[in-house]
């Protein structure tokens, strides 16, 4: 990495003073410094690809939702051409917000201030009293459209960037694509959202949630310990030693150049319990039949088997990616939840939207495959709501730590305390692991989260 | 079909002619129920509160959207909700607090006041159940934070008499906020 710029804060501190690449430490100050926040909005959120939602939220021409790309509000709309367009939700006339609604359908977005009108794709239609030409003659109509972002749709997920000439979305995903395909591209028809996303506010810096989302396995053992006390993971004796979450921490962790990371948690114990057989004696197909991926039924399996390479199928049946992040502020969960009705898969996506140095908006989508039978969709939805998001029994415990970290980042002394990521894989790359990327095997470690900070630093120090 | 599976059973309407007047015995009994319920919850007597629930409980909090005045009735979304509970899942929420040592989202617990007002009670046609509408302002104080999280909402309840006592059979919580202004709904509304 060649450092091209080293931002200096107004008290003279250099960005490089806040991170120690050798000892893998980050000073608390980096979490919530207002000057750094401004830089992050410019150098990260206005540069990388940002996750905005799912195309099934806007199935019809004219459908739109209002979303955030970092600190900017955007319109995500389906145009007359049937394509998804993302434009800045700010009027080029005098800067009024174009849509003050959260969701709707219209082929003409009219600014309520002076009445300029725009198409779902952002094109300027005109201003009132056409013959008086209230927008003047100095600029053409083409120049007066909404500022347009570049859009990529991947497995139905909508990403956008302001970096019009920058790296492609494929390039941004890098090695993560091999794994992400097994999550978002599993069926011919694809996934759908089961409804609009939940939204709520946490008084914490966005990075507290996002560095955790880069596959922090350790916090599950302590912060989410209740799961082993009364929750779905409480097991009398046989599996996991009676209420111990430690076995859930074994598997493979993958971290990629652009800080997309994931925890691929081993399914062998679950498959042994479901089938009564040693998983090593079962074929990939038999394992997937015993425990299909979330939202997939045994009937849907032939399609899944057809879509992937043997190597990918091996990972899906053995150690599938279950939780992880996409940089900068997305998280995914494709988890297998024991329930009285058997193991139910839950599929959720989060965006942690920065709302200033000390506030984030937690946005939670719950999904299923379009072809998932309705009864199973309903179960997935209910479990998703019960465990994740606003009222989620698992995720409500996360929401107290992040504000306390953010407050600590302000202390004259505590802002110099460092966050440490010093637990390292010593046995990289399990023999025979078929997937790309950097890979750690065994009990969870800090390498995935450290990669998140490395890439954060790389972008923050990149010359414009 | 899918919509039906995802969404809760629609609530019966509040019919003006079925209004039970304020101050009547039934009205006062309902009011006492709501006040006692608030007291139990404010004081963490969650096990006791769970005994007020019927086994066929439906307990929901739809999402809200900002839309135009003409679309006011479309501001609720009932497929994905903030809460989408039945008796079993509500009991699990209670047990998480009462039976574990690690429900960190509410340990230490928030100090909460549930202010219940604007109570209206209706008979339901062809049923002995009561439909009850009330306003709730929940104030939540956590740690030494100098602000309160406020959760204002309207509750539409169905109360049913079982073994002589009123029980909660249905509750729909209509929140005012599109983006909920508290870090979790780990508190019972
Ligand atoms: S600010 Fe939008 S028309 Fe004037
Ligand atoms: Fe967590």
UniProtKB/TrEMBL annotation, chain B:
<protein>
    <submittedName>
        <fullName>Aromatic-ring-hydroxylating dioxygenase subunit beta</fullName>
    </submittedName>
</protein>
<dbReference type="Pfam" id="PF00866">
    <property type="entry name" value="Ring_hydroxyl_B"/>
</dbReference>
<comment type="similarity">
    <text>Belongs to the bacterial ring-hydroxylating dioxygenase beta subunit family.</text>
</comment>
<dbReference type="GO" id="GO:0051213">
    <property type="term" value="F:dioxygenase activity"/>
</dbReference>
<feature type="region of interest" description="Disordered">
    <location>
        <begin position="1"/>
        <end position="21"/>
    </location>
</feature>
<keyword id="KW-0223">Dioxygenase</keyword>
<dbReference type="InterPro" id="IPR032710">
    <property type="entry name" value="NTF2-like_dom_sf"/>
</dbReference>
<keyword id="KW-0560">Oxidoreductase</keyword>
<dbReference type="InterPro" id="IPR000391">
    <property type="entry name" value="Rng_hydr_dOase-bsu"/>
</dbReference>
